[in-house]
Design brief:
By secondary structure, the protein is α+β, with helices and mostly antiparallel strands. Helix content is 30%, strand content 37%. Strands 1-11-10-7-4-5 form a six-stranded antiparallel beta sheet. A three-stranded antiparallel beta sheet has the order 2-3-6, with no helix packed on it. A two-stranded antiparallel sheet has the order 8-9. Bound molecules: 2-acetamido-2-deoxy-beta-D-glucopyranose (NAG) (2 copies). It is found in: Membrane.
Length: 191
Amino acid sequence: MAHKQDHGTSCCCCLFGILWKILVALIVPVGLAILIFWLVVQPRSFKFHVTEADLTQFDFYTNNNTLHYNMVLNFTAQASAFYEDARFANYDMVTHMNSFRQYKKITSPMSAVFSGQKLLMLNNEQASKLNQDKSDGVYDIYVKLNFRIRFRLGDSISRHLKPKVKCHLKVPSSKSGTFTLFQTTKCSVHF
Ligand SMILES: *[C@@H]1O[C@H](CO)[C@@H](O)[C@H](O)[C@H]1NC(C)=O
Ligand SMILES: *[C@@H]1O[C@H](CO)[C@@H](O)[C@H](O)[C@H]1NC(C)=O
């Protein structure tokens, strides 16, 4: 009886032992690969800035709840632009990231055009923020960039990564009398 129980326990242990070894065998190389990759590429390659923003129109008409907008941003990706959490535009890059190679320390300027009109339901808070921004002549615009990117280290090329880049911009309206210049804005990057 006792012998049988011992046998059962050791078999159980041995099964866990095997599972554990498999787990370690899988996790360690993957972890190391990620760590090495991170140490080598991460800090330098990912700094994104919006260098220029030109807002020629940003008018919200309350009679038909329509936002008429026209904005040009210089940066490098596929983007969605948000105003006070209300999405007003999608922009698809003409240049696909696949065909775009970013070598170290080379920055490739690109620009995105957000232009059109959009039916928006703004709540009271959003509407008063919009009025405030309008009188300031500077709009708080939140831009999300979606990248598809591959890193290249010597001859090895990583799989596609999809980092998320978020930019909180203060875009001066070029129509407003106040001559505020757009400040180059650094965006946050998350993988
Ligand atoms: C909304 O109303 C404004 C002002 O009356 C007008 O200029 C604009 O063309 C209208 N937009 C649409 C989409 O009807
Ligand atoms: C912004 O993009 C436009 C169009 O591509 C270009 O003509 C202009 O020089 C760019 N400005 C900066 C500051 O990169």
